[in-house]
Amino acid sequence: MPVLQFEERKYSVADGESVLECLTSQGAVVPSSCRSGACQTCLMRSVDGTPPAISQTGLKPTLRAQGYFLACMCRPTMNMEVALPGEEVAPRTSAIVVNKELLNADIVRLSLRCAKPIDYRAGQFAHLIRTDSLSRSYSLASLPSAEGQIEFHVRRLQDGAMSGWIHETLGVGDTVEVAGPFGDCFYVPGERDRGILLIGTGSGLAPLKGIILDALRHDHAGPIHLYHGSWKPEGLYLMDELRQLARRHANFKYVPCVDADATDGILEGRADQIAFQDHPELKGWRLYLCGHPEMVKSAKRRAFLSGASLQDIYADSFVICTPR
Amino acid sequence: MSLYASIGGEAAVNAAVEIFYRKVLTDDRISHFFDDVDMDRQAAKQKAFLTYAFGGPNKYSGKDIRSGHAHLVARGLNESHFNAVAENLQSTLQELNVPKEIIDQVMAIAASTHDDVLNL
Questions:
Q1: Is B116 within 8 Å of B73 (Cβ atoms)?
Q2: Chain A within 8 Å of B22 (Cβ-Cβ)?
């Protein structure tokens, strides 16, 4: 008889019983509604292995890749350790600052080397934690490396407690804590010929850059089109690096956009609007949307209405923490 | 054969759910009810609703439907909105070339939720 490990307790699974039935009949609290694999209310995560394929039907590929499954559809044949979303404890490690470089007036590239490499996918995010426990989330712009080196792009916010400290005080050789990874906005290998459209504003470029590098590393063959927007040309960054990347890879296109004062090689207009004008039909495309929450929200809706499947739209809203 | 099997089971729900949700989002009569919802969660709810309307294996109760719509009734959800959603469901099925007698059965199940949705 298989045994489930859930919240520090063990539950034995009766013959043919689902994870949901097993846990709730023995007193555990797991939210559920339709109990037929449709509504996804009973989403859980397998901590120690791949859940049965049928219990992952209908989930986004990035959720499947992280071991998420529907408890009502999962009839375990072997022992499993399971958790509710958001309740898993993220691995934590200390990390040392190995490089700090201004990318434009407001954004710094922070390179850290983790004492214990974290197992992440480019485009996910992690918490940076200062010794006094002040903590903020930043997207991972790097590809995972054996040396445990990771990269963040930190935009300096007005009165930003963490970003101000990172920009002004944190120096090479200093130590911070990193916890993560989190999030389901990343590249999933396979289906190499499909188009990928990426739209980002400000430091929303960070996860997108990581996702692009990951796709290219996996020899993604379909078009990869990046639209990066800012309000003025000086808000853009990594332009040379991205233009070089476009020269090396025929399927990668980079379109920098600004709201005003466009100079040579930059389009004037909002990045999302220009991207959707260039791509009126998005059936079969994968979308990655990162940055300003309003942009992400409206772009998600527009992408769906332009024919993209919701399964293929990955979004990461950069919500600003307001100081207490 | 059950209604759910004759309409094509889960494959039919998958084919219908995004067409249906796009219609709902672009219908000015009702789209404002969907402005501030998480689209992934909402699509999952639409899928659960279609599974139910297609005679599928959901274990919904009138109480679930009632409590799930109470906040919308408070925001003015009424008969005309209910009918608009039903129209969108019907045109989705027509677009997918579902035979008329099956559409009629689906619409009857949808109509049976009327009092619970509107909290009557």
A1: no
A2: yes
